[in-house]
From TrEMBL:
Keyword Transmembrane helix included in the entry's annotation: yes
Pfam families: Acyl_transf_3 (PF01757)
Organism: Caecibacteroides pullorum
Protein name per its UniProtKB record: Acyltransferase
Residue ranges constituting the Acyltransferase domain according to the UniProt record: 6-288
Keywords of the record: Acyltransferase, Membrane, Transferase, Transmembrane, Transmembrane helix
A GO molecular-function descriptor: acyltransferase activity, transferring groups other than amino-acyl groups
Entry's transmembrane regions: 9-27, 33-55, 67-90, 114-131, 138-159, 182-199, 206-225, 237-257, 269-288
Length: 304
């Protein structure tokens, strides 16, 4: 896809902020139902956008180079997280620290928030390979792609519901449907959204209700985009254009947030901690990214 769609960067901004917020263990534990609702739609939106924006029109050299420079920071940060999970009280970490366990975390079953990059790389490479090696109509290629993605789920390399959202984005791109036209901004989306989210059984991204919730959440979020002030719009677009850095580095700050949580415990709602920790995580991640670029180290980390 050529050019940038501001609405896409805005959606990415909202989703990455929700990711940071509910990776704060204290907030997730304090508002478990809100976390369950958010987890139903925020990463599906990310995956749908990722599939939509994956450019398979590049040469194989350019395409592989792009994903190599996603894999390298992913591997570095996944390794760091895996090691830290053995030394710190981290949920869903490694049970033992060993080279085979780290290799498995990188290539098979990531620990922590980096599963998204693992899924993105696998889905994108398979998407490119199928559409360049298989002859025939787009529908035939998509059927083969879907079957291959299902095969990867059988090998426990990814979750099929996540791959399905990526596949949905690919279909929208190949049929030339603009994403900001597919999602119809509407304040009325809030009514069915609330009704669906009020039933706990609906809160599964892999179910039909989860798909509808994801669609309604996107429509509702896009309704508010034109209502933002210029400053908020510029800020949201900037964050949306730098989600990779926030995804990579924010776990460092969410882990550190446990250290200053007692200082903010006087607020029983946890909102002050939420705002402080999210601001530090996002600001710190962007600062690390800028430091890497200004020092020249980014060429070894991001390839540019």
């Amino acid at each position: 896809m050529s050019g940038r769609m501001n609405e896409i960067d805005y959606l990415k901004c909202v989703c990455i902020l929700l990711m940071v917020i509910f990776h704060l263990t204290y907030i997730g534990d304090k508002y478990p139902y809100a976390k369950q609702v958010v987890y139903t739609f925020h990463m599906p939106i990310f995956l749908l956008i990722s599939g939509y924006l994956t450019n398979i029109g590049k040469s194989i050299k350019e395409f592989l180079k792009k994903y190599l420079w996603i894999f390298i920071p992913y591997a570095v940060m996944e390794t760091s997280y895996a090691v830290a999970s053995c030394l710190l009280p981290v949920r869903q970490g490694l049970e033992e620290l060993s080279l085979p366990a780290i290799i498995e975390a990188i290539f098979v079953s990531p620990v922590g928030p980096y599963w998204y990059l693992h899924t993105l790389i696998l889905c994108a490479l398979l998407y490119y390979a199928i559409f360049h090696l298989v002859r025939g109509e787009a529908i035939t290629r998509f059927i083969i792609l879907g079957l291959c993605l299902y095969g990867l789920t059988c090998l426990h390399l990814l979750a099929y519901e996540n791959a399905a959202y990526f596949l949905g984005g690919c279909i929208l791109a190949q049929t030339h449907v603009k994403l900001n036209r597919f999602f119809r901004p509407s304040i009325w989306a809030i009514i069915p959204f609330i009704l669906l989210c009020a039933v706990p059984e609906n809160l599964s991204r892999g179910s039909l209700s989860g798909i509808i919730i994801t669609y309604l959440a996107s429509c509702l979020l896009l309704y508010f985009y034109p209502l933002l002030t210029d400053r908020l719009r510029r800020g949201s677009l900037y964050i949306g254009q730098h989600t990779l850095a926030i995804l990579l580095f924010s776990p460092v700050f969410t882990m550190l947030a446990k250290g200053y949580l007692p200082l903010l415990s006087f607020d029983p709602t946890g909102i002050l901690f939420l705002v402080t920790a999210t601001a530090l995580a996002v600001g710190g991640s962007l600062a690390i990214e800028q430091m890497l670029y200004r020092s020249g180290l980014s060429r070894y980390f991001f390839g540019k």
